[in-house]
Amino acid sequence: MPKFNRAKPAESDILQKLEARLRKLSDANLSESRRYCHDHVDARNFPEWLDYAKTTLHDSDAIRNALYYGFQPLYDSMISGSIPPESRSSALKVLDRLVEAGVKFLTGYYMGEPDPALFREALNHIQDDIRALGRDVRYTTKFRNVDYNGIYPPGIQSFLQQISEHSLDGKGFVPDYIVGCACGSSEVVMPLSGFFETDLGFLRRSWRRGDDDVRMVEEQEPFIKSCSNGKIVLCVEDYVCTGRSLQRVMNKVRGYGASSIKGASVNGPNGPDYLKSEIDGRKFHLYRLK
Length: 290
Known about the structure:
Elements: H1 11-27, H2 46-54, H3 60-80, H4 88-110, H5 116-133, H6 153-168, E1 177-181, H7 186-196, E2 199-203, H8 221-228, E3 232-239, H9 244-255, E4 260-267, E5 275-281, E6 284-289
């Protein structure tokens, strides 16, 4: 899993940097952001996705889409077991590099400073491993709520702004670790990880994918456990309905020994069935376990 590879700085230092990032976030104008979806991805396998991704470097919003439709099919394929054992090492390298690139690029994007060179560099690093996956590894896209179902960049910008302000006002908390609910939350948690300089992991409990329980990339579980044990963990969804999937993810993290757990989402109801609401804002919902 991608890491910041250093001792966690003092909370006061994090908050000082967060305040500076918040000023840039607040000034960024994302009202003209373009909307893309899986229909724009002309790929039937991972090498074809790489070719598509290279065409997006002129357009920051197309890069957002390419990042997701590299990450989501690969993450799901790792879980489903469709990647053969001899290719999993290459797949893990690609997955980690995509998350690392997503954190860096999307943090800049939401501060109004997108840098396509970061994505170009990532593509250069992963192209040999992508080619090694070959054309037979399953590549299946799923639609996402972002850019499609009531969540767009200005809404994510608002979420990032509100959760940052909540931490800065002394009433919120600063997470030691962030867990994204795979895969739809990726465009929310990647910049959030960058804003808080916090390591990031993913767990999946998806009703649409038929998950009965929380699932994950098995090679990543030891890192997720170690980052959660004794730590303050924030679990994030893009869209909460009943809250059942987020509750399952939060309970999984609690089982890893987290000292404190909160849940958050961009869109959500006023009072989900399976969680206790702490904040019901517009584009910012905060939850705790019942």
